Amino acid sequence: MAFQLTTKGESPEPIAVVRSGATIVLFLTASGTGASVELPDSLVTEQINKLEKVSGE
Fold first, then answer.
1. pTM score > 0.85 for this model?
2. Whose C-alpha in 1, 11, 34, 57 is 20 to 30 A from the C-alpha of 22?
């Protein structure tokens, strides 16, 4: 399986792609203004924990 993301020019939006078992999820955030934003590790970790709880993995 391959994953490809194509953007035009500079892309300040952080993206995290996570695989848990057979499930692949994409987490991203955007400012809507083009300003740089962060995707906090703690937020991604919490979402992964929720995913694994629901999927039983």
1. no
2. 11
